[in-house]
Write a structure and sequence with these properties.
This protein is mainly alpha-helical and about 200 residues long. The chain has eight helices and no strands. It folds into two domains: about 1-90, no CATH class; about 90-200, no CATH class. Helices cover about 80% and strands about 0% of the residues. Helix 2 runs antiparallel to helix 3 (about 70-90). The longest helix has 29 residues, at about 5-30. The relative contact order is 0.09. The mean pLDDT is about 75. Pfam families: PQ-loop. GO terms for molecular function: L-cystine transmembrane transporter activity.
């Protein structure tokens, strides 16, 4: 029976081969077609590689990162890093679109502020559970010696998401000015005010 690493390498090889075949077919259609539909700009070609690239990177990093012995742990590592790359890639189209259009019309400032707050809290949560031995020991004591399950990819994802959200907020500031910030400030703070007021 092949080892888990050998099996996962075969999966990556198959995925890579299929991606290369699809790219070759697309290139052939672009050359054969006389319509303008298949003549893609460099940016459009890169846009098509984000999702397959995230999948391939996730599988590769998951295979080669250290993991506890066993096929289940290796699969968990591969899935964890694949989710990290897939979700991380999902933040970039909005940032790139804002940059290309030089506009943030239609982008919710409130949503971005709440996202920054949420990802900041999520980063602190994961970072403390991953690096703070006192918190990990207290968690194990409360939960029958079970580990919290926070992994490096969780910490990196949350930190990366927080940074990208801050970049998006900076784009909103630079491209639309400070006009909407006052309304967003009051709407976001009202959530905390009414929540706190409801618990008193």
């Amino acid at each position: 029976m092949p080892s888990s690493v050998h099996w996962l390498r075969r999966v990556v090889t198959t995925l890579w081969w299929r991606a290369a075949r699809c790219q070759k077919q697309l290139r052939k259609r672009m050359l054969d077609s006389e319509s303008d539909d298949f003549h893609l700009s460099r940016g459009e070609r890169w846009d098509r590689l984000w999702v397959p690239g995230a999948l391939i990177l996730g599988v590769l990093v998951g295979i080669f990162m250290p993991a506890e012995p066993g096929l289940g742990n290796r699969i968990s590592e591969v899935l964890g890093w694949t989710y990290f790359f897939a979700w991380s890639v999902s933040f970039y189209p909005q940032v790139v679109l804002n940059f290309r259009r030089k506009s943030v019309n239609g982008l919710s400032l409130d949503f971005q502020i709440l996202n920054a707050f949420g990802f900041g809290c999520y980063f602190l949560f994961n970072a403390l559970f991953f690096w703070n031995s006192g918190i990990r020991a207290a968690y194990r004591e409360e939960h029958d010696n079970q580990d919290s399950g926070a992994r490096l990819n969780d910490v990196i994802f949350a930190g990366h998401a927080f940074c990208i959200t801050l970049i998006t907020l900076a784009q909103i500031c630079s491209l639309s000015g400070w006009a909407g910030w006052l309304i967003a400030f009051f709407s976001v703070n009202s959530v905390f005010f009414f929540h706190h007021g409801g618990n008193s």
